[in-house]
Amino acid sequence: MDLYSDGFSDIVSVDFSKTAISEMNKLGGDKPGLAFIEMDLLEMNFPKNTFDCIIDKATMDIILCGDEPIKTIQNAFKNIYRVLRPSGVFMMLSYAKSQLRLPFLKNKQYPWDISVETCGK
């Protein structure tokens, strides 16, 4: 909702939780240019090169705490890379130290430029 309030449009928010999507639709589902879709990151059905920007807000943190984390995160990045436009930006927001996430991002399959920014302490 903050991105929308700041003037961004054509925002698609994806979550596998039916409850989360239902709650988000109550807050802003009627706003033009804002969509909330119940979908699994690992089974996204968006066409290739759909998005200019993808923001992960702790999804990778959750994946790495689950079953088969390495395989799952590799599949997640494969899907993210597929739907991200070639000049697009993937932002991963994580509570974890960057050293714990960078090995997954540094993959020859995904020739993206990587930069790390730290917020707060």
From TrEMBL:
PANTHER family: METHYLTRANSFERASE TYPE 11 DOMAIN-CONTAINING PROTEIN, SAM-DEPENDENT METHYLTRANSFERASE SUPERFAMILY PROTEIN. Keywords: Methyltransferase, Transferase. InterPro entries: Lys/N-term_MeTrsfase_sf, Methyltransf_11, SAM-dependent_MTases_sf. Pfam families: Methyltransf_11 (PF08241). This is Methyltransferase type 11 domain-containing protein. One of its GO terms (biological process) is methylation. The keyword Zinc-finger does not apply. Belongs to the methyltransferase superfamily. The lineage of its organism: Eukaryota, Discoba, Heterolobosea, Tetramitia, Eutetramitia. SUPFAM superfamilies: S-adenosyl-L-methionine-dependent methyltransferases. GO terms for molecular function: S-adenosylmethionine-dependent methyltransferase activity.
